[in-house]
Specification:
Largest sheet: 5 strands, antiparallel
CATH architecture: 2-Layer Sandwich
CATH superfamily: Histidine kinase-like ATPase, C-terminal domain
CATH topology: Heat Shock Protein 90
CATH class: Alpha Beta
Mean pLDDT: 87
Distance between the termini: 44 Å
Length: 163
């Protein structure tokens, strides 16, 4: 498990995001083609986890601590199948179930954080308390349902001893 405690201020966001990027690199998420069985590095995993975490950190700094700062504790736990990120703070809490679905047709400038977290991660939960705990999890292996591309077909055939 990786743990970090830092100020919940936007000035520290870049440092926190860099830690998440490094954890994603260590986790080595994979995308497997259902047709060929060929596995490749899943760079979309990294982008989605970083986007979700960035929104979580912003919410703590802007809403939880009202830009006044306070401690944020970040934990990253990786198993062979899942990456879980916990963001803990002592700021103002909220009811995640009461957060409305945004009207994407109007392209709002704010209010998309929870929507982005839910869209990018496989599971998002929030518990009010001391501390407040936001937990986000994502599977490390995803299966593509799409058609295999040329390089994947070639690799699959080579694995089976065909030219």
């Amino acid at each position: 498990m990786i743990r970090l405690k830092m100020p919940g201020l936007l000035e520290y966001r870049d440092l926190a995001v860099r830690m998440i990027v490094s954890a994603c690199n260590l986790a080595n998420a994979r995308r497997v083609n259902r047709i060929t069985g060929v596995s490749r590095r899943d760079h979309e995993f990294d982008q989605e986890v970083v986007s979700a975490f960035g929104e979580a950190f912003n919410n703590v700094a802007i809403h939880g601590y009202a830009r006044q700062g306070g401690d944020v504790e970040i934990e990253i736990e990786t198993t062979p199948s899942t990456m879980t990120i916990r963001v803990m703070d002592y700021g103002g809490g909220f009811d995640i179930a009461a957060v409305p679905q945004p009207d994407l047709d109007t392209m709002p400038e704010s209010g998309l954080g929870i929507y982005i977290m839910r869209s990018c991660m496989d599971d998002v939960t929030y518990e009010n308390g001391s501390p407040n705990v936001l937990t986000m999890s994502k599977n490390l292996v995803r299966v593509d349902d799409g058609v295999a591309v040329g390089a994947e077909v070639g690799a699959a055939l080579a694995d089976k001893g065909r030219p």
